[in-house]
Amino acid sequence: MELIKIATAGSVDDGKSTLIGRLLYETGSLKTDQIQHIEEKSTARGFGYLDLSLATDGLLTEREQGITIDVSHIFFSTPKRRFIIADSPGHVEYTRNMVTGTSNAQASIILIDARKGVIEQTKRHFFITQLLGIKQIIFAVNKMDLVDYNEAIFNEIKSALLILTEKHGKEGVNYYFTPVSALHNENIIDASEKLHWHKGAPLLSLIESLPIETNKAHDGAFQIQYVIRPKREELHDYRGFAGNVRSGSFTVGDPINIHPTGRKSIIKRIEKYGNPVDKITAGENGTILLVDEIDASRGDSILNQQANINKGKSLSATFCWMQDSPLAVGNKYWLQQGVQRSLVKVKSLRSKIDLQALEHQQTNQLELNDIGKGALALAQPIISKSYADNPALGAFILIDPQTFNTAGVGFIEKA
Amino acid sequence: MSILKQLEEESIYIIREVAGQFNNPCLLFSGGKDSITLLHLAQKAFAPASIPFPLVHIDTGHNFPETIALRDKLVAEHDLRLIIGSVQDDINAGNVIEEKGKHASRNSLQTTTLLNTIESYKFDACMGGARRDEEKARAKERVFSVRDDFGQWNEKLQRPELFDMLNGMIQNGENVRVFPISNWTELDVWDYIRQEKLEIPTIYYAHEREVFLRDNQWMPVSKYVQVEDNDKRQVTSVRFRTVGDMSCTAAVLSEATALDDIIEEIGGSKFSERGARMDDRRSEAAMEERKKVGYF
Ligand SMILES: Nc1nc2c(ncn2[C@@H]2O[C@H](COP(=O)(O)OP(=O)(O)O)[C@@H](O)[C@H]2O)c(=O)[nH]1
Prior knowledge:
heterodimer; A: alpha+beta; Rossmann fold; Elongation Factor Tu (Ef-tu), domain 3; 3 domains; 8 helices; globular; B: alpha/beta; 2 domains; four-stranded antiparallel β-sheet; 16% strand; binds guanosine-5'-diphosphate
């Protein structure tokens, strides 16, 4: 069985919680005590139906406000697939949460209220999926019951979406357009009589069959997380570099070099959890042992000698800012790419994106929830690639040196 | 990659980040199936070396003896360092006051002992076996969850977690709770226990035990539970789904004496795991309130 992570986005009241609750309910993922809770609450509120949006209600404060305010991870599965839904809320001020939720997703569901059609928020949500390079995008037009399941209304919304995707969509993205009623369970699990004019599969079948992309970049890059040195007599000379293959693969006998020292060596042995293996590939952990006693420590990288990877001390990126104190030229931060870190200084800021018009404008700082472009100078060289070529080496976070909060995220541009 | 493999890879990556980023981490070990899974993952992460941090057990003094027996066996077999924080000691010292009455439990008292233990050993990261599927409030929990000087969870301190990049930089006095098996479900843990042939406390398997029905839950008769005269005691075949404090952990009727049977039962079980913990039922927001004051 496979696992797919899907991010959801929509404006407040578009029916996102109801849709997720519906998926949980219909796939039998809610337990008796949870359903009981929903029944009791629905009755207490005087509803004549099950308010499935209650299935995903989370934090106290949010219950008081009656809105969703953070990224939550919701699990369900069908015989075909395991799903993790990263639910990101729809308010204007929460771009940060949506970027976060979407960063781990392979697909995205963007909800639209059939009565409202494409609004500013829809554009913003779509723009973020493109920034993050999401390749599978479902536009779910909800509340079709409130427009009498009218085909013409759906087609109008679809045309507006096509204009958006043509203008701002990246290459190689698959789009799916689906009319649904989350509340009345139309075209969610089964094909809908009322939406008989719709040719595509119901939402659940659709997400069960979405293709799952993997990182295709073949540059062999392994980041060292921890150096294993057993304190035992018989393993006195053991020095294992434990870490994670960011991209490409490593095989016993491969010639490598270490970043940043540039020292060359050959892989003597690869282990997974104490046992020898021949090869490790992108996304996997491993422990690499080299033929000679080379020094390397946490944050350093083991690179395939043929790998074509940047090791510079400057880079250009698109940033999404996530804290109250703004990003400005001259500010210093800790940059973390994978497990490597370097102090950086903001060299320049070129522009900021107006998320309403989706246009670039000049700026000298980025505030909370702003997205913009600029350049950084690094204290130490890090290994990197552009986000488009190799997402595992192309994204980084910036850490505030005073509070140590995660202040923002960056996507490296092509040099 | 199979889902179990994928989850194992993700968890081991997280555990190695903890060892790499923190000076003085520990692994919170309750002796239950989740912490046994976590311990096993940690052992894999640093093989062939032994794990570079101690286990910390917050002992309510109301444990199932089977849990303690297995804990001590694992510690001896794998040459682990075990630190015990004792709730009884905190009660004796007057740091906390024992709850009274028939719903009394020591779960909420654990918080004080946990925070005291963290403070006296100066742990900067504590790994725990909580999962996001356990309870709604947990669905929003981060993998690295920062706690303030008072051990409290504060929404403002929670950092966005992007991709697989974990930011463990903290201020003096702060510490981080880490949840390496966040993305596992209860069933994944069972499947993994079967796959890796892990030993778990025998109370997880069906056995004959004296129980009585309270609020629709089968409570074990023990010296920690106040049984009233009109409570009907009976001996029947039960098993436990969690190994918490004996005074507030309910059993489920079961004939599942083997892992395969348990997995089959859970696959079709109609109650979520936490439904079997009395103290979460006290109030809808119980878990969240406890989290705020530092209980996980
Ligand atoms: N008529 C109708 N109402 C819906 C539908 N989906 C959701 N709603 C209602 O819209 C309101 C907001 O839904 P909710 O799921 O809480 O929205 P969220 O803010 O996007 O999570 C609730 O009153 C729902 O019952 C739908 O398909 N049709």
